[in-house]
């Protein structure tokens, strides 16, 4: 088939290909990838290993041959394909929660600790906490707050989002860093300095 026919065939949301050879399966995977689609392939025959390797995600089951297991990216231990949906949802939830922890930890663990030291060295402003108490506070506060964020439930639209692109979508990106340092970090710093200065002047 030419590109026009492939565009027409692959425009459908649900497709069924029957009695296809391993070469045809590899061609189908390649045509989907040419159109910026994310492709997952599963099979248990040695002839289908090229398609399994070519796909973005190669899925093997526990009772597949060893060649398929080695070529696959994940192995379903319970031989249940519905586990893939659950695994995708769990992976997206972990990624979202790790981003939330990063937004909380980045400014709190670095940004809000640099400025008190800076003001102490250059302007002689006393430190609110000693190094020991700052370490103890960070260990207790960060662990408890991070656990609270990590155990959050998934959003309702978590499975309606497009898949992440390997090598392009990262855990830490410019948008997250700007939000962490320029919004959350500055807000934390001004709040902490206001409380400390108010206590310092009052006493």
What does this protein structure show overall?
There is one protein chain. By secondary structure, the protein is mainly alpha-helical. The chain folds into two domains: 3-80, 3-Layer(aba) Sandwich (Rossmann fold), CATH 3.40.50.1000; 91-202, no CATH class. It is 61% helix and 5% strand. The radius of gyration is 26 Å and the shape is elongated. The mean pLDDT is 80.
Topology:
Layout: H1 3-9, H2 22-34, E1 40-42, H3 49-54, E2 57-61, H4 66-71, E3 74-76, H5 82-123, H6 131-150, H7 174-202
Parallel strand pairs: 1-2, 2-3
The average pLDDT score comes to: 80
Q: H/E element string?
A: HHEHEHEHHH
Tally of contiguous helical segments: 7
**Order of neighbouring strands in the sheet with most strands:** 1-2-3
How much is the radius of gyration in Å?
Answer: 26 Å
Q: How helix-rich are the residues, as a percent range?
A: 55-70%
Work out the number of β strands: 3
What's the number of structural domains? Answer: 2
The share of residues in extended strands comes to 5-15%
Structural class: mainly alpha
Task: Describe the sheet with the most strands.
Answer: 3 strands, parallel
Spatial gap, N to C terminus: 83 Å
Global outline? elongated
> Runs with pLDDT <50, length 5+?
none
């Amino acid at each position: 088939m030419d590109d026009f026919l492939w565009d027409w065939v692959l425009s459908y949301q649900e497709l069924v290909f029957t009695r296809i050879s391993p070469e045809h399966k590899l061609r189908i995977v390649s045509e989907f990838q040419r159109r910026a689609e994310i492709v997952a392939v599963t099979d248990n025959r040695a002839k289908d290993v090229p398609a399994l390797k070519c796909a973005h995600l190669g899925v093997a089951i526990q009772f597949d041959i060893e060649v398929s297991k080695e070529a696959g990216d994940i192995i379903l231990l319970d031989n249940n394909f519905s586990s893939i949906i659950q695994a995708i949802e769990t992976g997206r939830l972990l990624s979202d929660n790790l981003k939330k922890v990063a937004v909380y930890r980045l400014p709190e663990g670095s940004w809000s600790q640099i400025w008190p030291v800076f003001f102490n060295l250059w302007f002689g402003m006393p430190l609110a906490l000693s190094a020991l108490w700052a370490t103890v506070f960070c260990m207790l506060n960060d662990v408890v707050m991070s656990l609270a964020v990590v155990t959050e439930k998934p959003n309702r639209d978590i499975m309606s989002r497009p898949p992440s692109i390997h090598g392009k979508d990262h855990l830490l990106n410019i948008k997250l860093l700007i939000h962490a340092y320029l919004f959350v970090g500055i807000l934390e710093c001004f709040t902490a300095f206001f409380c400390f200065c108010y206590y310092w002047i009052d006493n």
